[in-house]
Specification:
Elements (H helix, E strand, L loop, with lengths): L1 E7 L10 E10 L5 E11 L5 E14 L15 E8 L9 E4 L1
Antiparallel strand pairs: 1-2, 2-3, 3-4, 4-5, 5-6
Length: 100
């Protein structure tokens, strides 16, 4: 688990001011061939106090040691997928390949 704070700026709003946020990220493992991912973000006031939940994400990081990918190709054992979903709809159905 990691927990920290940061500052964000909405780049789609020319008049936006930076806002503070807190975030907690957890990667967990239950013995299967994947990690679970969970992230929670809180809005913070100017003094750093929590003033409300901003958003949540959850997902899986899968390691491909054997088998076939979604297109039927063989895995070479060096990559993985990060699949996640947000309560705001971002990332829904997205597929990200990670090669290490």
């Amino acid at each position: 688990m990691w927990r920290g704070t940061g500052r964000a700026l909405d780049h789609t709003d020319a008049d936006a001011k930076p806002t503070q946020f807190g975030q907690q990220i957890i990667f967990a493992h239950d013995g299967e061939n994947y990690l679970t991912y969970s992230s929670r973000v809180w809005k913070l006031d100017d003094e750093g106090n929590q003033v409300g939940l901003d958003h949540r994400e959850t997902g899986f990081l899968a390691n491909h040691r054997q088998g076939r990918d979604r297109s039927g190709g063989a895995f070479d054992g060096r990559g993985g997928d990060f699949l996640w979903e947000s309560d705001q709809g971002a990332g829904v159905g997205d597929h990200v390949s990670i090669n290490v």
